Amino acid sequence: MRRRTLLLSSLLPVAARAQAAGYRVIDLMPDFWAFHARAQGLAPEAQAALFEQEVAARHPDAYAPNVIGLDPAKPYGEQLQRRYLRVLPILADRTDLMRRLSTSIARDLPRYEARFRETFPDLDYRGDIYFLHSLGGFDGGTRRVDGRTALLFGVDMIAWVYGEGIDPQPFFHHELFHIYQGQFAAAGEAERDDDPLVTALWREGLATYVAQTLNPQAGGVSIFGLPRTTPARVLANRPQLARDLRGLLDSRAPGDYKRWFLGGRDENAEVPGRAGYVLGYHVAERLAQRHPLRELARLPVTALRPEIDAALDALGRG
Question: Which of 13, 110, 149, 240 is the one with CA 20 to 30 A from 81?
Fold first, then answer.
């Protein structure tokens, strides 16, 4: 009942449009802001305990370990407190921006979706879309929440990654494209943690290319995220990076995925953080010269593998 009250009180126009579109919008930010008001003046540890009580405990499915990235084998409360204490200082100067975003993003979602449907009119998403404070877990992504596929947007990380003056539309188009591409996956092709590296290269690269194509005015962090220096660093050493990644496309090692697709590492690392997104973008750019975007969305990575290999080979030659 509480979830329904949130939808009707804070998102009635958006919820009505979402219902017509087939998906359900669930905004958890009102509970976060109620907690935030009560937490003022409390010690950080007391704030963390109150967050667990007033936010996480009220929405256990959305704050389950598998959703926000906690270890299910370790004590939940201790991990939640550590996460809260870790993100508290880095988000301190983003509170006003988060408040504006938590009002505007859900309101603007129908506009983002309408722009997406201009190119992909057959988008058919029937899951849930959540807006929440992710405790630094993600800016966006898909998870299983309460047994259903859900698209989640972490308002805290959207504020931290993209900052002031950034239009969130390209980021939302990136995530909507993942949902759209998933519509055409055959049985057994659903994304898995042990997929080979080529799968991440293609999925993330194509989604990044689509976000740029639908938003030609955007660039930099709004397309490629953080670190801000990655696109320029990849471009400066693209042939070598392309050759290195080409030799790892069949790897299922978590360390290889982390090295090429996660940020938050040493800025001077040999492989720039999230370099796989940038190289994947350039691969998708080449394949889009021969295939319409809607065709690329439908084709499995196995069917495109020779073209992906050839594109990386070409990038590796400079």
Answer: 149
